[in-house]
Amino acid sequence: MSDVGPQQLASLLDEHGGALVLYARQWCSSAEDVVQDALVQLVRQERTPERIVAWLYRVVRNGAISAARAEQRRRHHETDAAARETRWFTTSEGDRLDAEVAQAALGKLPLEQRETIVARLWGGLTFDEIAELTGSSLSSAHRWYEAGLVALRQRLGVECPEKKTKLAT
Amino acid sequence: MSREENEARDLNAIAASLSSLSPSTGRLDRDRLMFLAGEAAALSSSALPNSAMSRTAMSQSHEVQLRLAARRWAWPAAFSMVSAVAATLLAVLLARPEPRVIERVVRLPAEPQAVVDTPAGAAVARADAPEQVERGRSERPAHNRRRGDGDYLSLRDRVLARGIDSWTSSLSASNVAPPETTHNHRELLESVLNSL
C-alpha cells in the first residue's frame, strides 16, 4: 500500500487540487472526476511515486484524454453546455487579471501551449517534467510556453515592448 | 535595456499576473474523495498478506478463499478430467492395430455331383432357340436353377483343371449312379450311419 496518508492526501488536494482540475479541463469537462480518480489511484499504489506531483499530472493527463474520448463518443449537448459554464478560476479582490477574460484567452490557445502554461504556472512543474509529461523535448516545452505567454499577452491587452518602443518614438 | 530583456520581463509579468489567479476546484468533493481513498486503502491492506489482521481472521479468510477457489474450480476440473478421458479413448481407438487375418483350412464334405445337361444339347438348344432356353430357365424353380448353375460352374472348373476327359467320366458316372444329396447335417449323419 502507498505511504500516502490522509493528511498528505488532504495537503495534496489543497495545494494541487485546483491546478489539477484546471489541467484536466484542457481536455474534458469531467475534470473533477478525473482528478478524484487520480488521487484514489495514488492511494492504491503499492509504492509511493518519487515525484508525486509529476506522477499525478501524468495520471490526470491520461485520464482526461480518455474521458475526452468518451465524451466525444457520447456527444452530449449537456456536456458542452456545462463545459462552457464552468469557471476555471475563483475570483478574488487581489486578482491582477479578470478571471473570465483570462479563461477565454487561455481557452483560445492551442492545446500544447495551454497544457504547458497550466502545468508550469499553476502546477509548478519544471520544464523537464513538462517535457517528460507531454512526451516532447525540452526546447519544445520552452517554445510552447513562451509562445503561449506572448499570445496571452496580446489577447489580454498588454502591449508588447516593440509596440511600446514605436509608440514612444 | 535590450529588446530581449524587455520581452522577458514582460512575459514574466504576464506569467505573474496569471499565477495570481487561483484555479477553481469545481465540483471536487473533498469528503467523497477522502472516503474513496480510505476505502481504497482498506482494500489494498486486506489484499496484502502482511497486514495488521489477526491470525484467526487471516486463517478464516484463507479458508473462505480456499473454499471459494475450490468451488470455482470444481466444474472446470471435472470438465477437464472427462475431456482427458475422452481424448485418451479416442487416441486408443485411432491407434488400435488392424485385426489379424488368420487363414484356416476348413475341410468340408464334398458335394455330390449333380446331373448336368449335356453341353452339346444345351449348345444346340441355345443356338436354335435362345428365347426358349431363357424361358425354360425362368420357368424352372429357383432352387433348381441355382443348383444347376452351381453344377455348371463346378463342371467348368473341373474341365479347365483336368481336361475334357473329366467331363466325360463324370457324365458316365452320373449316368451310372446318381449320388444321394444331403441337405443338412442330420441327413449327412443318417447317411454315414447307414453306410456303417
Q: Helix proportion of residues of chain A, in percent?
A: over 70%
Global geometry of chain B: rod-shaped
- How large is the radius of gyration of chain B? 54 Å
Largest sheet of chain B: none
The most extensive interface between chains reads: A-B, 47 and 35 residues
Number of helices of chain A: 9
Count of runs of 4 or more consecutive helical residues of chain B: 8
* Beta strand % of chain B: under 5%
Distance between the termini of chain A: 66 Å
Largest sheet of chain A: none
Mean pLDDT of chain B: 73
Class computed from helices, strands and strand pairing of chain B: mainly alpha
Say what the CATH topology of the largest domain in chain A is: Rna Polymerase Sigma Factor, Chain: A
Q: What count of domains describes the coordinates of chain A?
A: 2
Task: Supply Rg of chain A.
Answer: 18 Å
Fraction in helix of chain B = over 70%
Number of strands of chain A: 1
> Helix-strand pattern of chain B, N to C?
HEHHHHHHH
CATH class of the largest domain in chain A: Mainly Alpha
CATH architecture descriptor name of the largest domain in chain A: Orthogonal Bundle
- Unreliable segments of chain B (pLDDT under 50, ≥5 consecutive)? 123-145
Helix-strand layout with pairing:
The complex is a heterodimer of chains A (169) and B (196).
Chain A: H1 6-24, H2 31-44, H3 52-74, H4 77-85, E1 89-90, H5 99-107, H6 111-122, H7 127-134, H8 138-155, H9 161-168
Helix pairs in contact in A: 1-2, 1-3, 1-6, 2-3, 6-8, 7-8
Chain B: H1 3-19, E1 22-23, H2 30-47, H3 55-94, H4 119-128, H5 130-139, H6 142-162, H7 164-176, H8 185-195
Report what the structure shows.
The complex is a heterodimer of chains A (169) and B (196). Chain A is 71% helix and 1% strand. By secondary structure, chain A is mainly α. Chain A has 2 domains: 1-86, Orthogonal Bundle (Rna Polymerase Sigma Factor, Chain: A), CATH 1.10.1740; 97-169, Winged helix-like DNA-binding domain superfamily/Winged helix DNA-binding domain (Arc Repressor Mutant, subunit A), CATH 1.10.10.10. Chain B is mostly helical and 196 residues long. Among the domains of chain B are: 57-92; 119-178, no CATH class. Chain B contains 8 helices and 1 strand; from the N terminus they run αβααααααα. The radius of gyration of chain B is 54 Å and the shape is rod-shaped. Chain B starts with a helix and ends with a helix. The interface between A and B is large, with 47 and 35 residues. Strand 1 of chain A pairs antiparallel with strand 1 of chain B, so a sheet runs across the interface.
